[in-house]
Design a protein that fits this description.
Length: about 450
């Protein structure tokens, strides 16, 4: 292709013959057919592309978003000022033709040499745009962090408060236990009697299932009547604990036969107080376990003390994200469909957790906090696919088509930045070489993320 044909493109107006020759020599003309993939979304942006003839479809997430069908239309030029940049979309032949391809590094050097001021201007403009974008992304991250922090404070406060209440009650139960032992000693209970009473205590096996309130009230009333008939003054303290542990009148009759009337009350109070101590200790253990679980989920979610690129299971990230968003999922039914043959993947676990956060949070918002959240993982070829589905009202086609655009949002002012899905797309496509797509209809929306099991050779940092 001679310089004369390039002269017919208005794109090159203003270049001298020497400059145009230098540019032509730096690049190459490539023919293409319909369906030919010229450049791929997520790959390193090594070249600047100019359509000479024919048509090229610009595609993002397997959807055509634009068409370059006028000679002189170009793509990838601004990426010449971003040495670590990647293609934001793919270019695929639509109608047979030719493209002119110039290495991004050569374009940057020629532009700077020919038009120093213009080169500095473009570099500054691109740098400013990146700074603005970075600030907006940080703002969105801070909004997400604030939401998660508020939820975590609530999640941790519940078990912490329960542990605190149990500790105070435990102190009182221990005092009662010691008091009952003193009364037993004062009545000079024999070693054999105490041994038999302890054997009876060991027979009590409290149920772990939540008790039926009406049945529990009836059992407590029956025990109170029995204790009152046997002159036990603190029946209002002993009866509720024994009833909650599943003790019946028959067991009490056996205890009375062992102890006799003189030490029946302190003996039963000792049994009741030991049951209270064990129950309260179990509450403390469960509360502290829950706090540890939340802390562990936070560490997993944030990927603290982990290498940037890791070999990990995506279900771990999904589960830790569910813990982080637990305060928003109380009225949501969560259906998990995790395939057993899904391999661990290589990637940025912490960044993918941000993706799961955005997708799950959007799903909860779409359902107004009530509905079914469906999480799916499966192996598709060499890729791991993750689906986040909801039973919300769905997206109209025009909304779904623009969902991944930066700053596009259907939420009220102040409730969304329009960056959540754009960030998710960037992390999935640019950082992991994957795809993300939406399938929506009334009553059902599914966002499908597909990620290669192995990290691409070059992952921008």
């Amino acid at each position: 292709m001679g310089i004369e044909e390039f002269r017919s493109l208005t794109l090159f107006d203003g270049l001298t013959d020497a400059q145009l020759s230098e540019l032509v020599n730096a690049g190459a003309v490539l023919p293409f057919d319909p369906g030919t993939e010229l450049w791929r979304q997520g790959d390193h942006a090594d070249f600047w592309w100019v359509v000479i003839e024919g048509a090229v479809d610009i595609r993002r997430e397997d959807k055509t978003i634009a068409r370059m069908d006028v000679p002189g239309r170009w793509a990838g030029g601004l990426r010449a000022w971003d040495q670590e940049g990647v293609y934001m979309a793919s270019g695929r032949g639509a109608e047979a033709g030719r493209v002119f391809r110039v290495p991004a590094s050569a374009l940057r050097e020629l532009t700077t040499a020919w038009f120093p001021f213009f080169g500095h201007l473009i570099a500054g403009l691109y740098g400013t745009a990146r700074q603005v974008e970075s600030s907006l992304l940080q703002r969105d991250a801070l909004v997400t962090l604030g939401t998660l922090a508020a939820g975590l404070a609530h999640e941790i406060n519940n078990p912490a408060a329960a542990a605190s209440r149990a500790v105070h009650a435990l102190e009182e139960a221990c005092q009662t236990l010691l008091s009952s032992l003193r009364h037993i000693a004062d009545e000079q209970i024999s070693a054999q009697q105490f041994k038999e009473l302890d054997s009876l205590r060991r027979e009590i096996q409290p149920s772990t299932a939540p008790p039926d309130p009406l049945a529990l009230a009836d059992a407590e009333e029956t025990l109170t009547d029995w204790l009152s008939d046997h002159r036990v003054e603190r029946d209002w303290v002993i009866a509720p604990t024994l009833a909650a542990a599943g003790v019946d009148v028959a067991w009490c009759e056996r205890a009375a036969a062992v102890l006799g009337e003189a030490v029946l009350e302190p003996g039963l109070e000792w049994v009741a107080s030991t049951l209270s101590v064990f129950t309260l200790l179990a509450e403390v253990a469960e509360s502290t376990r829950r706090v540890s679980e939340i802390v562990g989920a936070v560490k997993s979610y944030s990927q603290m003390d982990r290498a940037e690129i890791q070999h990990f299971d995506v279900t771990d990230g999904l589960e830790s994200t569910l813990v982080m968003l637990g305060h928003k999922l109380r009225d949501i039914e969560i259906v998990r469909d995790y395939a057993k043959d899904v391999p661990r993947i290589d990637g940025h676990a912490g960044e993918l957790n941000q993706v799961w956060t955005n997708l799950i949070d959007n799903a909860v918002d779409a359902m107004d906090g009530v509905g079914t959240l469906h999480l799916v993982t499966r192996l598709v070829g060499d890729d791991v696919e993750v689906e986040v589905g909801d039973t919300g009202s769905g997206m109209p086609p025009e909304v779904a088509a623009r969902a991944f655009e930066a700053f596009y949002t259907t939420k009220d002012v102040g409730k969304g930045t329009g960056l959540g899905l754009d960030i998710a797309r960037r992390i999935v496509a640019d950082r992991h070489g994957g795809t993300i797509a939406i399938e929506s209809e009334p009553g059902r929306t599914v966002i499908r993320v597909r990620i290669p099991a192995r990290a691409p050779e070059r992952v921008p940092t």
